[in-house]
Amino acid sequence: MKTLATIYKEFLLLIRDPGGLALIFIMPLALVIVMALVQDAPFRDYQEVKLDVLFVDQDADSLSAKVKQAFDSSPNVNLVVKTDTAEVKKLIQAGAFKAAIVIPANSSETLREKTKQLIIEVFSNFGLAEASKDSVDMNAIGIKILFDPAIKSNYKQTLTGGVQKIIAGIQAQWILDELQNQLSEGRADVKKTKVSLTDIIQVKEQYASEKKYQGLMLNSVQHNVPAWTMFAMFFILYPLAGNFIKEREEGSLLRLRLISGSQFPVISGKFAFYFMICLLQFVLMIAVGIYIMPLLGLSKLVLGSNIAGILLIACSVAMAATGYGVLIAVYFRTPQQALSFGSVSVVILSAIGGVWVPVYVMPEILQTISRFSPMSWGLESFNDLFLRQASIQTILPNVLRLTGFSLVTLFISVIIHKSRTIL
């Protein structure tokens, strides 16, 4: 009965506190929407952004044509053709474009001559042809890629790698063609074989997911909804600690302690009520991810198929958040101390736990420290369930960590509450 009475009392206190209701429900919903919108572009940087690249064709031959054709078929690069290299350099320096590709004059002709000379030298080493008397300069053809100094390194590496891959494919194709030309020289009956090197080996990209979840990857919504949901759940300490300390200052807890019997029902009642509030927060935030985010032009939150696992990890995070809030409420004597320490500690736990940015982009030392944050345990489990369609066995270690964290904080809270003399 004492536990139920405590739950009812906490319910009355909460509904009479408009500020507390806004902090628990309205602010987290606004926060997750704003953060998803703000971080949508950075997440797209690694996924589907289209980069405008200037293209200067001084060659006007087959090499530049093949390079242009390859990039025209790319979904991530939009070539903007220019003729004046001086103008192109000014545009790059001004930041109007991030990169430019310049194909020098006579590149195709030079590559043909180099290819022919290379095949002749190979044949001459085997005594199949005489070495050419007119040697060709074998220095590399100077294809230029101009970059804006402010370009992101991943863009630079991707564009450079793409150009090198295209040129390597063209070189290989021309070497094969020249080889057939040399072997068929003087023989009219030989039919040349048309070979597409890209048909021999194909690299296919896909995610290691079930068929119906193919293409699902970490994006702004998939990261921010579970991340900021946990952040909101841990901020349950604000109304919990505020009401607890207020009762202690007004003497309500003293009157409760004068009643014979254990004080555990008082702690457990507060714990049970705010545990249910945390679960309500979780449901509302998930609903925002599913129904509101698409209306804002963002991706829809995909939960995966393991609903039981989602409920299990949600309950575990709610227990950990409530247990931490109870510990803060019991330990500190004034609202200022409790709320100051509580808010700063939650921000730190969320920062190292991957709420602000994913853990994998953090420095190595922070990645190591993040393993000790309850939010990291929860967020990792949500990613396992939402993105990897993991089983309950996969998330069970994190469930046990969160549950253990909750029980430890609750046990310490009961000890402190019993030992502390209220004057």
From TrEMBL:
Stored InterPro entries: ABC-2_transporter_component, ABC2_TM, ABC2_TM_bact-type
MF terms (GO), sorted A to Z: ABC-type transporter activity
Segments crossing the lipid bilayer: 20-38, 225-245, 271-296, 308-332, 338-361, 398-417
Subcellular location: Cell membrane
Domain of life: Bacteria
Keywords noted in UniProt: Cell membrane, Membrane, Transmembrane, Transmembrane helix, Transport
Residue ranges of domain ABC transmembrane type-2 in the record: 185-420
Keyword Nucleotide-binding: no
Membrane topology: Multi-pass membrane protein
PROSITE patterns: ABC_TM2
Gene Ontology CC terms: plasma membrane
Pfam families: ABC2_membrane_3
Family listed: Belongs to the ABC-2 integral membrane protein family.
Name of the featured protein: ABC-2 type transport system permease protein
Organism: Ohtaekwangia koreensis
